[in-house]
Design a protein that fits this description.
By secondary structure, the protein is mostly beta strands. The chain has strands at 3-7, 10-13, 18-25, 34-39, 46-51, 59-61, 69-74, 79-84, 93-100, 117-120, 124-129.
């Protein structure tokens, strides 16, 4: 069955870096757009980034992480990565990866809407200390 497993979270000081992994199984991850979301305590889930399949090559980032975060794929490992640099305390939260219900492209108009995603990982905690 479709499964997504995140890893790579942890505790880091402000200004530091982390790389999150999203390992997919039960499907070919490059056949779908994959999103990254995060949820801070007491806040709603927020879209962070979306990576289209390699053939499409369009990625999106929320404004607050643009220039600091970078999303990529390793299709040989069926894995998607989120490289997070220059981390800030406000980046703290549980980070989730998710697979769109259908489609290879992250659509500009709705990539950030959680309802577009049908399969979710269990999340990995990221804590950035000041």
């Amino acid at each position: 069955q479709v499964q997504l497993v995140e890893s790579g979270g942890g505790l880091v000081q402000a200004g530091g870096s982390l790389r999150l992994s999203c390992a997919a199984s039960g499907f070919t991850s490059n056949d779908y757009a994959i999103g990254w979301f995060r949820q801070a305590p007491g806040k709603e889930r927020e879209a962070v980034s979306c990576i289209s399949s390699s053939s499409v090559g369009i990625n999106w980032y929320v404004g607050s992480v643009r220039g600091r975060f970078s999303v990529s794929r390793d299709n040989s490992k069926n894995t998607v990565y989120l490289q997070m640099n220059s981390l800030k305390p406000e980046d703290t939260g549980i980070y989730y990866c998710a697979r769109v219900i259908s489609g290879r492209a992250c659509e500009q108009s709705h990539w950030s809407s959680p309802v577009q995603y049908g399969s979710w990982g269990q999340g990995t905690q990221v804590t950035v200390s000041s």
